[in-house]
Design brief:
- The complex is a heterodimer of chains A (about 350) and B (about 325).
- With about 350 residues, chain A is an alpha/beta fold.
- Chain A has two domains: about 1-300, Thiamin diphosphate (ThDP)-binding fold, Pyr/PP domains (Rossmann fold); about 305-340, no CATH class.
- Chain A has helices spanning about 1-20, 35-45, 60-65, 70-75, 110-120, 140-150, 170-175, 180-185, 200-215, 245-250, 255-265, 270-295, 325-330, 335-340, and strands at about 50-55, 100-105, 130-135, 155-165, 165, 170, 190-195, 220-225.
- In chain A, the strands form two sheets. Chain A has a six-stranded parallel beta sheet with strand order 2-1-3-4-8-7, sandwiched between helices. Chain A has a two-stranded antiparallel ribbon with strand order 5-6.
- In chain A, helix 1 crosses helix 12, helix 4 (about 70-75) crosses helix 12 (about 270-295) and helix 5 (about 110-120) packs parallel to helix 6.
- Chain A is globular, with a radius of gyration of 21 Å.
- Chain B is an alpha/beta fold.
- Chain B has two domains: about 1-180, 3-Layer(aba) Sandwich (Rossmann fold), CATH 3.40.50; about 200-325, Rossmann fold (3-Layer(aba) Sandwich).
- In chain B, strands 3-2-4-5-7-6-12 form a seven-stranded mixed beta sheet, sandwiched between helices.
- Classes of the chains: A alpha/beta (about 350), B alpha/beta (about 325).
């Protein structure tokens, strides 16, 4: 877990640098400071449990084991990216690892997660769904629609609210009548717990218990992780809405050194071994950036590829510009495509 | 062949596909005990149970979002949105979720979802009498189907459920009680009608009338009047699918008739007909003997009063007038 947190931190440090060099475009939302939430939660679940996250999604991808090279290539908008440069930083996904994406319309993935959980229940599969969102999402109607359905149908889903005190630039007091998000879930009769989101072991313990509850058919659980993002909302954020002293105070609880010290103290590993992990991760990140730099750009002639799983007739007026080769390939394997759904 | 209503045709397609494939589930507001606000799903919960015919809270965005997730989890959901007016609450999930995932996530998965909803009017006032097919048809990633006859409702719904992409399937409240011949299901036979194929429903030589949904029936009535009173032979094409549009069928017809009238029920400004006009003009300009005519809803909110409603709704008379303007 220490390695994963360092991996996320260093990945994003390098991403920030690449953003400054204009190698990454658009929005870049960093997870720095919140790493313990994704890492603790995902390690408390099975690899085949379904994962949906919000747009601050690099941490989920890396904690789920997605290739950092392909993640970085996606940020760089390259063909080798997880989504071949179609999604970008906010829309990473790797279906082969049951990572169903970063969702950039706030709260939209809350009912989607509920629907996936229903599909598991319906098919008598024992996977649970982890659905991550922030405190800001709880002000959106879709949050309430999703929680209402999950509770109503007793679905195997863990809602993980990363309460980092800000919805972009709005303070908690400006966006919510209650400061504890779990209170909102309690209205739906859902078991709700709060944990220290700066402590990876605390998150792990809370989500582990939640997963057992869900998997045993007892319905959804709401986990509120109290956390903080050390960086701005995105790279464009001048952070006018919060004091530097507040940021400093939270930085003193940085989950990475905190867990590192815990490991040394409990003789899980030595300081030297931690340093070695840091070095190894740094090398991986240099490789990831080099890989992304060298990855080919997507072919503009292929920009229309993949609008549909079953492409519409190119002879029709509104057909996508799917290349003949791609069309033939997809037409030839419709059943394989269907099976892969 | 059996003579069945449009409503029964839709219900029959849902039922047959549910019998054929256990992954098919229905969900929507008041679709169980109530039977659906237009009684389309009547009896299905009794036959298939509440796990497959799900009563939902009144939460349109949640319903579609949930259905998207269920589709990603391996099911084939058919979500009912009581009317297309209420579908506006679910636009985000339709446009930003269902339509995007296959493309945005690099083709890793698709969303085999059908959203059934209903256009129409009938003294329901400004918020309950609209039709937005053009909005949906403008979105890459969606397929949009709008059947006019019971046979097409059945065949296209089967195709929509079996399609791996999200399909917006728009029924019409004033068509539910219309009746037509529908083929009996034959095991092992292809009983679906491909999405994206228009149909020439009446052959003619002098003018091409293009319609869909209720306006197909108005176009057919107009064709009868034109034949009888004006000696004009009108060809009538049912578009059936609005995305993708079967332009080759339309173009082939216009090459023979040299005149084109587009019939829709949505607003003139920004309505689906505006896009049809642009594209058909591009493709048929040299074949046309006159400007393409449009029949559309006037740019006014639908009023409640019967007299006012009549002043707004496109009719067969307006189709006849449009043809006479060309001749």
């Amino acid at each position: 877990m220490y390695r994963q947190m360092v991996l996320i931190r260093r990945f994003e440090d390098h991403a920030a640098e690449a953003y400054a060099q204009a190698k990454i475009g658009g929005f870049l939302h960093l997870y720095i400071g919140e790493e313990a939430v994704a890492v603790g939660a995902l390690n408390a679940c099975r690899d085949d449990d379904h994962l949906l996250g919000h747009y601050r999604d690099h941490g989920y991808a890396l904690a789920r084991g997605c290739d950092p090279k392909r993640c970085m290539a996606e940020l760089f908008g390259r063909e080798d990216g997880l989504c071949h440069g179609r999604g970008g930083s906010m829309h990473l996904a790797d279906a082969s690892r049951n990572f169903w994406g970063g969702y950039a319309i706030v709260g939209s993935h809350i009912p989607i997660g509920a629907g996936m959980a229903y599909a598991m229940q319906y098919q008598h599969r024992d996977q649970v769904v982890l659905d991550f969102f922030g405190d800001g999402a709880t002000g959106n109607g879709i949050f309430h629609e999703g929680l209402n359905m999950a509770a109503l149908w007793n679905l195997p889903i863990i809602f993980i609210c990363e309460n980092n005190l800000y919805g972009m630039g709005a303070t908690l007091a400006e966006e919510s009548p209650v400061s504890e998000m779990k209170i909102k879930a309690e209205g739906y009769t859902m078991p709700s717990v709060q944990c220290d989101g700066m402590d990876v072991l605390a998150v792990y313990a809370a989500v582990r218990e939640a997963a057992e509850h869900c998997r045993s058919g007892q319905g959804p659980v709401f986990v509120e992780a109290l956390t903080y993002r050390f960086r701005g909302h995105s790279m464009a954020d001048p952070e006018l809405y919060r004091d530097k002293s507040e940021v400093q105070r939270w930085r003193s609880q940085d989950p990475i050194p905190r867990f590192g010290e815990f490991c040394v103290e409990h003789r899980v590993c030595s300081q030297k071994e931690l340093a070695q992990i840091n070095e190894e991760v740094e090398q991986l990140m240099l490789d990831a950036v080099a890989f992304a730099d060298q990855s080919p750009w997507p072919d503009p002639a292929e920009v229309g590829r993949g609008i549909y799983a079953k492409p519409i007739d190119p002879e029709a007026g509104v057909a996508p510009s799917v290349s003949a080769v791609e069309l033939a390939r997809i037409e030839a394997e419709p059943e394989a495509k269907q099976a892969g759904i | 062949m059996a003579l069945v209503s449009y409503r029964e045709a839709v219900r029959g397609a849902l039922r047959d596909e549910m019998l054929r494939d256990e992954r098919v589930i229905l969900l929507g507001e008041s679709i169980t005990g109530y039977g659906g606000s237009y009684a389309v799903t009547k009896g299905l919960v009794e036959e298939f149970g509440s796990k497959r015919v799900m009563e939902t809270p009144i939460a349109e965005a949640g319903i579609v979002g949930f259905a998207v997730g269920a589709a990603m989890g391996g099911l084939l959901p058919v979500a009912e949105l009581m009317t297309v007016n209420f579908a506006l609450l679910a636009l985000d999930q339709i446009v930003n979720s269902a339509a995007k995932f296959h493309y945005m996530f690099g083709g890793q998965w698709s969303v085999p979802l059908v959203v059934r909803t209903v256009s129409g009017f009938g003294q329901l006032g400004p918020t309950h009498s609209q039709t937005f097919e053009g909005w949906f048809a403008s979105v890459p990633g969606l397929k949009v189907v709008m059947p006019a006859t019971p046979a097409d409702a059945r065949g296209l719904l089967l195709a929509s459920i079996r399609d791996p992409d999200p399909v917006i399937f728009i029924e019409h409240s004033l068509l539910y009680s219309t009746r037509g011949e529908v083929p009996e299901p034959t095991p092992g036979e292809a009983d679906e009608i491909p999405i994206g194929s228009a149909k020439v429903v009446r052959q003619g030589d002098d003018v091409t009338l293009v319609g869909y949904s209720r306006m197909l029936l108005q176009a057919l009535q107009a064709a009868e009047v034109l034949e009888r009173d004006d000696g004009i032979s009108a060809e009538v094409i049912d578009l059936r699918t609005l995305r993708p549009v079967d332009y080759p069928t339309v173009v082939e017809s216009v090459r023979r008739t040299h005149q084109l009238v587009l019939c829709g029920e949505d607003w003139r400004t920004g309505g689906f007909g505006a896009d049809l006009l642009s594209e058909t003009q591009d493709r048929c300009f040299d074949d046309l003997d006159g400007p393409i005519q449009r029949v559309a809803m006037r740019d006014i909110p639908m009023a409640y009063s019967r007299q006012l409603e009549r002043a707004l709704v496109p009719t067969s008379d307006q189709v006849v007038e449009a043809v006479r303007r060309l001749n």
